[in-house]
Amino acid sequence: MIKILMIDDDIEVLDINKKFFEEKNCHVEVAELAIKGLQLAKTFNPDCILLDVMMPDLDGFSLCKEIRKITDAPVLFLSGKVSEDDKIEGFEAGGDDYIEKPYSLRELYARIQVSIRRHTKTNQYKKENMIIDINPFYIDIENHKLLYGEEEIALSNKEYDLILFLSQNIGKEITFEEIGLKLWGSYIESDRRNVMVNMSRLRKKIESQTGIDNLIETVWAKGYKLVKLK
Q1: Which residues make beta-bridge pairs with 134?
Q2: CA-to-CA distance for 44 and 58, rounded, in angstroms?
Q3: What is the DSSP string of 195-227?
Q4: Residue 230 reports pLDDT greater than 70
Q5: Are 11 and 32 in contact (CB under 8 A)?
Q6: pLDDT at 128
Q7: What is the pLDDT of residues 41-67, one digit of tens each?
């Protein structure tokens, strides 16, 4: 049984969605306030979290950052704020998907299932492959960390997912589309900026902490490639 946590200040939306998902044999908990949603994220241990952006006590982006300190369960933003900047802010806050209101409940349920399957596969991979060696860097998959020797380079969830994906394809040219599909599950051409923003942040963190600026090469007009350093 899928456990879904919904956080939205619109009680009518919560009631409608809760009824729909319970008919799909899901276990559903709801919260009209961010503080209650945060408490449920701790105690309910959801498989997926549906999160509104415009909340009265704490906006969804800020709440997602707090949730990410508790759980790595998929977070799907549901919002009428659908500018490119809004979506980027949602992904940078730790969201896994960003869905425009109004939405189809059938499509939303399908996206929930996809996000949970992706999350499950990622966790299974972590169990089977605990360390990736890209000397002098190491990816500690069990603890979700990028290390330079024994020194951790602090990354956001998407930055970590990005370096992990590249390290799994070391020496291979990875396109913007492949990265977008891997990190967010979908891709349109305007998503290229999302990929570039996350890559820029990742590179800056690596360079500022280690002085190494050539770990990830740009493949002109195509994407990126992680190289083995000599």
Answers
A1: 137
A2: 20
A3: HHHHHHHHHHHHHHHH----SEEEETTTEEEE-
A4: no
A5: yes
A6: 64
A7: 989 999 999 999 988 888 999 999 999
Which segments within 144-186 are labelled E, that is strand?
145-148, 151-153, 174-175
Q: How confident is the model at residue 82 (pLDDT cuts 50, 70, 90)?
A: confident
Sole residue written with tokens 């913007």: 176
Read off the pTM: 0.58
What is the rounded distance in angstroms from the CA atom of residue 73 to the CA atom of residue 40? Answer: 13
The C-alpha atoms of residue 172 and residue 169 are separated, in whole angstroms, by 5
Rounded CA-CA distance 175/183 in Å is 12
Mean pLDDT computed over every residue of the chain: 90
Confidence of residue 191 (pLDDT cuts 50, 70, 90): confident
Of the candidates 89, 95, 93, 73, which has an alpha carbon nearest to the alpha carbon of residue 184? 95
Contact between residue 60 and residue 79 where contact means Cβ atoms under 8 Å apart: yes
What would the two tokens of residue 224 be?
């990126």
Q: Which domains does the chain have, with CATH numbers?
A: 3-125 (3.40.50.2300), 129-226 (1.10.10.10)
End-to-end CA distance of the chain: 49
Bigger pLDDT: 48 or 229? 48
Q: Tokens 């929930």 sit at which residue?
A: 112
